[in-house]
Specification:
Layout (H helix, E strand, L loop, with lengths): L5 H28 L11 H4 L1 E9 L8 H17 L6 E5 L3 E7 L4 H8 L4 E9 L6 E3 L34 H9 L18 E4 L6 E4 L4 E2 L3 E9 L4 E8 L1 H14 L9 E5 L2 E4 L2 E2 L9 E3 L4 H12 L6 E10 L4 H27 L3 H25 L6 H30 L4 H33 L2 H32 L3 H4 L21 E2 L11 H14 L3 H13 L17 E2 L1
Parallel strand pairs: 5-13
Antiparallel strand pairs: 1-3, 1-15, 2-3, 4-7, 4-8, 4-11, 5-14, 6-7, 9-10, 10-14, 11-12, 16-17
Helix pairs in contact: 1-9, 1-12, 8-9, 8-10, 9-12, 10-11, 10-12, 11-12
Length: about 575
């Protein structure tokens, strides 16, 4: 059975890095081929401009609008936008009654509809409709109960007091006349903002059906969750709801009243911004607060309805005051400044690495380049899959990560050099230095990731980009450290240039003061012979060793010298390198 050597492990690690890199580029290439991704990162609002929509809160029955209600509405609107896959959206409150939504790039029609459909979500019983709906509430038995179309002739009832929200006594002669004159295609017939305790004449968003709905019986705030999925029994897409405790009780009573009623009085409508999103019929008693809506859904239409129901429970109704395209607030000039700053920082790190570590510094530079490639392609994929957009704060996070990444390599290299000073071989120093350095680096990087996560959760939206890129690059840094930096060092340490301790390699034992062993003891430098220049080399090596001693070690060496009369002499040559001369 073949044993796993450091060289084999190093090549396997580099091969895995190549596979990961190829996989990431392949994933993004698929997105580009499908037209949903790009080879350039998506930019946020502050770098490329976008769309600004201003919503103004409307008073309901003269109620005072509180800042808490406005903040809650802004949170729900953000959830709606996030559900559409648009990232780095800025949503703020303004003037005590406005919400300003700024979207990077040009907002598509679906995103605009999610934002502008900003009134309260209401649940009203259906009293009359001009066509037939195909959706039903699914009870515990899961059966679909078909029903005939309602009588197209609207019969107004005498003016009496309605007994409940589903009582057709709400349909008075005056309401009948309004219904017959109501034109769904007329934009002046705006059903939004109507009283909650009165019936409502409205249509579906496409204008294909016209309804008379009873008073509001439930608010959308009673819905705590809405999901969609494929029903395994019927093989149809369904929308699954969950009500809070109060909503569960109310909906249970409504299902008892509507179940078994003649169509369309068995239907219950979800109304958003005055329009009917869906009006399912009640096909069973639903007392657990977890009804499902089943019908002629596609996967996309089920998802859209679930999002509308989940994020439609705004505490206020709004009207769109303006919808404009805005220019970049910082623009390409600021982006160029940020990129130039990053390049300057990278150049300084490279200069320092080469100055401090000689040719060994090229490993740092190569690691930074590999990290840059992986970070770039990861940001492109995240823009496609998560809607992530690179803001100026995100660029700042990338710049800061250069220094954090260089820290890992410096810790590792200094550990290797410490091992060399203890007299170990270069290959042994690489392995032992790795064992000691990785624990320090893992702890340091864990703190960086934790800080990034906390900052992302608690910070303002303008800072989230910084926290996200900082956390992302820290994770990539750890990956590069494991499958690139250390394997490369394992291979380089076995070359004649690095393994032989060439003066320019950065791993020269003599230049590192490797002649020092223990406290106040020295051994002959590597290559020392009893030649004429032996004493001079020994003095230089000993001086280098003393320069690299800690303060405590230097004091102990001085005490040892004083104990021997304050004199030190060059040690005799020791071919076995097991004894050192005493000072």
């Amino acid at each position: 059975m073949a044993t796993s050597t450091p060289v084999k492990r190093a090549w396997r690690a580099l091969l895995s890095l190549l596979i990961i890199t190829g996989a990431l580029f392949g994933i993004n290439a698929i997105g580009v081929a499908l037209g949903v991704s790009s080879w350039a990162p998506a930019l946020a609002l502050d770098l490329q401009g976008g769309t600004q929509i201003v919503l103004e809160a409307q008073n309901q029955d003269g109620e005072q609008i509180s800042q808490e209600q406005l903040d809650q509405a802004a949170t729900i609107i953000r959830q709606r936008v996030d559900a559409s896959g648009v990232g780095e959206t800025e949503i703020t409150t303004e003037g005590g009654r406005n919400i300003v939504v700024q979207i990077p790039g040009a907002a598509d029609e679906d995103t605009r509809n999610r934002i502008e459909a900003s009134a309260q979500l209401q649940l009203r019983p259906v009293l009359f409709l001009s066509g037939q709906t195909s959706n039903t509430f699914v009870g515990e038995d899961g059966n679909m109960t078909p029903y005939p179309s309602p009588d197209p002739t609207l019969q107004a009832t005498p003016s009496t007091q309605p007994s409940n929200a589903s009582d057709i006594a709400w349909i008075t002669p005056a309401l009948e006349a309004q219904y017959l004159a109501f034109d769904c295609a007329d934009p002046s017939n705006d059903p939004a903002g109507q009283p909650h305790d009165q019936p409502l004449i409205t249509c579906d968003p496409e204008g294909l059906q016209k309804f008379i709905l009873g008073p509001v019986e439930m608010e959308g705030s009673s819905i705590i969750d809405a999901t969609y999925g494929l029903d395994q029994k019927t093989n149809r897409w369904t929308v699954n709801l969950a009500f809070d405790s109060e909503g569960t009780s109310t909906f249970g009573k409504i299902s008892q009243r509507l179940y078994g009623a003649q169509p369309p009085l068995d239907q219950f409508a979800f109304v958003l911004d005055g329009y009917v999103l869906s009006a399912p019929s009640m096909n069973g008693l639903i007392l657990d607060g977890k009804p499902s809506i089943s019908g002629s859904f596609t996967q996309e239409s089920a998802k859209v309805l679930a999002d509308q129901l989940k994020y439609g429970a705004l505490p206020l109704s709004f009207k769109v005051v303006s919808s404009d395209t805005i220019s970049a607030t910082l623009g390409s000039q600021q982006l160029q400044i940020g990129l130039i700053t990053g390049l300057v920082g990278l150049a300084l790190v490279c200069v320092y690495a080469l100055f401090q570590y000689r040719v060994l510094g090229t490993v740092i530079i190569a690691s930074l380049l590999v990290m840059g490639v992986l970070t770039y392609i990861a940001i492109c994929i995240l823009a496609w899959r998560m809607g992530f957009r690179l803001s100026l704060a995100g660029v700042a996070g990338l710049i800061v990560s250069i220094g954090f990444t260089a820290d890992s390599f410096i810790v590792y290299f200094e550990r290797i050099r410490d091992e060399l000073r203890d007299g170990k071989s270069i290959t042994g120093a690489v392995e032992d230095g790795w064992g000691r350095a990785k624990r320090t680096i893992y702890i340091s990087k864990s703190i960086n990731v934790l800080a990034a996560v906390v900052l992302y959760i608690l910070a303002d939206a303008t800072v989230k980009g910084f926290a996200f890129t900082l956390g992302l690059t820290t994770l990539i840094d750890i990956l590069i450290f494991i499958i690139f930096t250390h394997p490369v060092m394992q291979l380089l340490s076995r070359t004649s240039f690095f393994g032989g301790g060439h003066p320019l390699s950065g791993l020269d034992p003599t230049a590192l003061g490797a002649v020092y062993r223990g406290r106040a003891q020295f051994r002959a430098p590597v290559g020392a012979t009893p030649s004429q220049g032996k004493a001079a080399r020994a003095v230089r090596s000993r001086g280098e060793a003393e320069r690299r001693q800690t303060i405590a070690e230097r004091k102990q060496a001085e005490l040892a010298l004083n104990a021997h009369g304050g004199k030190a002499s060059a040690p005799p040559a020791d071919t076995n390198d097991t004894k050192g001369g005493e000072a």
